Amino acid sequence: MELEERLNDVRSRIAAAERLGGRTDGSVQLVAVSKTFDADAIRPALQAGQRIFGENRVQEGQGKWPELKSETPGIELHLIGPLQSNKAAEAVALFDVIETVDREKIARVLADEMKRQAKTPRLYVQVNTGLEPQKAGITPNDTVAFVDFCRDELGLTIEGLMCIPPADENPGPHFALLGKLAQASGVEKLSMGMSGDYETAIAFGATSVRVGSAIFGVR
Predict the structure, then answer these.
(1) Which residues of the chain carry a pLDDT beneath 70?
(2) What are the two backbone dihedrals, phi and then psi, of residue 159, each rounded to the nearest 5 degrees?
(3) Contact at 8 Å (CB) between 137 and 102?
(4) Which residues, in sequence order, are bridge partners of residue 160?
(5) Count of CB atoms situated within 10 Å of the CB of 155
(6) What is the phi/psi pair of residue 125, to 5°?
(7) 96 burial type by CB count under 10 A (0-12 exposed, 13-18 middle, 19+ buried)
């Protein structure tokens, strides 16, 4: 199956999941996760009309997206991997959305950089719903207070929450928890669901899904 066919299959499945969940058509954004794929592998997705992409690493994104953005207008680039504070300046310069705000230090550095560069990438707080020690993210119990801190202390606008459920668990309860935390925090957007579970995520209210291997193939 060619990339365009795989992309259209994912789009069809998203549309079906929206209908099944009583959602408005087009209410779920597809973030095509292009990490580890080079510019030549990404161009067919751009030719098929995909404009929203996700990358895990700032440095990798810098290597391919400035050129792709200059070729194709209207690209929206999401950082979906952990952000180190020493990469914050580059992240603010390159990305339109940063989905992995997960601690006070990175929130402060981002606030400073956004002022310095006069740029306002949209921000999501990453929540470690499974309390996995190897995974980034704020704990569920600390989420509401952390969102309040970002808003009240730093003047940051937090657009939504993001999570990556444990690989070996039913994702449904994690998606439900993220939805409750978003409501309690007063944020509207939910970035949740990947290639294996994005239809479930849509049933639980995802507003964007991050799909890589189902579009680009196995890395």
Answers:
(1) none
(2) -80, -35
(3) yes
(4) 124, 189
(5) 10
(6) -95, 130
(7) middle
pLDDT tens digits for range 101-134:
999 999 999 999 999 999 999 999 999 999 999 9
What pLDDT sits at residue 1? 75
C-alpha 166/C-alpha 147 separation (Å) is 23
What local confidence, expressed as pLDDT, does residue 139 receive?
98
156 phi and psi, to 5 degrees? -85, 140
6 alpha carbon, distance to own chain's centre: 20
Distance, in Å, from the CA atom of 212 to the CA atom of 178, rounded to the nearest integer, reads 21
**Cα(6)–Cα(45) distance, rounded to whole angstroms?**
10
Q: Residue 140 and residue 131: Cα distance in Å, rounded?
A: 8
The residues near 5 (Cβ < 8 Å, ≥ 6 apart) are none
Give the whole-angstrom CA distance, residue 148 versus residue 139. 14
C-alpha–C-alpha distance, residues 146 and 185, integer Å: 9
Q: Which of 215, 213, 204, 199 is nearest to 182 (CA)?
A: 204
CA atoms within 13 A on the CB side of 178: 33
Q: What was the pLDDT predicted at 218?
A: 82
Helix or strand or coil: residue 37? coil
User: In whole angstroms, what is the distance from residue 17 CA to residue 176 CA?
Assistant: 16
Reduced 3-state DSSP string for 68-137: HHHHCCCCEEEECCCCCHHHHHHHHHHCCEEEEECCHHHHHHHHHHHHHHCCCCEEEEEECCCCCCCCCC
